[in-house]
Amino acid sequence: MIEGRLFVISAPSGAGKTTLLKKVMARMEGLSFSVSHTTREPRPGEEDGVDYHFISPPEFLGMVEKGLFLEHAEVHGNYYGTSQESVLAQLREGTDVVLDIDVQGASIVRKSDVLSGVHIFIAPPCLAELERRLRGRDTESEEHVAVRLKNAVNELQSACRYDYLIVNDQLDETVDLLVAIVWAERARLHRLPSGKPIVGITE
């Protein structure tokens, strides 16, 4: 069986990545979302085991000590990490995996000897629009908005290290573009848009 492909997606907070990925996942076969572990509190509407595995800081650090994470980082005062075995198990089954992680985590994965992936950066049209989206959440204090905007400037400087750069201006167009990238990567590995291997043509 052909192994699945890892798609590493990064974006500044407020760039619309979560909404984008939900729409892409709903449209595509053979694509699975890697559920990260985090110590932050759930936001309204988030479910444990669906959006994140919400755990305590001591639990998280215990997993770090056991070497269970493919990557882990501290972001905005909270810990985030990706279970290595969970990702590898899905890839072995031939499933493509979407890894939603920040630029720190993506850098760790990029240097990993364990696996390789396609790295995609989602950017906002401009910082003013990013600020508007952050304030529109109505879940962030002024202090948190300022921190996220400052971090966004640093994160945007990392965009050049990614294989693809997508500006999330018109959501429907952005969804189409990300779907097209996944299809193109599948074709490059001789797989159908569904993710299934192409057989019987070149044999």
How would you summarize what this structure contains?
Helix content is 40%, strand content 20%. By secondary structure, it is α/β, with parallel strands linked by helices. It has one domain: 3-Layer(aba) Sandwich (Rossmann fold), CATH 3.40.50.
Keywords:
40% helix, Rossmann fold, 4-stranded mixed sheet, 5-stranded parallel sheet, 203 residues, 20% strand, alpha/beta, globular
Give the full name of the CATH homologous superfamily.
Answer: P-loop containing nucleotide triphosphate hydrolases
Number of helices: 7
- N- to C-terminal separation? 16 Å
The biggest sheet amounts to: 5 strands, parallel
SSE order = EHEEEHEEHEHEHHEH
Explained architecture:
The structure is a single chain. The protein has helices at residues 17-27, 57-65, 84-92, 103-110, 127-137, 142-156, 171-188, and strands at residues 6-10, 31-33, 37-38, 53-54, 69-75, 78-83, 96-100, 118-123, 164-167. The protein has a five-stranded parallel sheet with strand order 2-7-1-8-9, with helices on both faces. Strands 4-3-6-5 form a four-stranded mixed sheet. Helix 1 (17-27) crosses helix 7 (171-188) and helix 5 (127-137) packs antiparallel against helix 6 (142-156). Strand 5 and strand 6 form a beta hairpin. The protein has 203 residues and is of the alpha/beta class. It is built from seven helices and nine strands. The model has no long low-confidence stretch (mean pLDDT 89). Helices cover 40% and strands 20% of the residues. The longest helix is centred in the last third of the chain and has 18 residues, at 171-188. It has one domain: P-loop containing nucleotide triphosphate hydrolases (Rossmann fold).
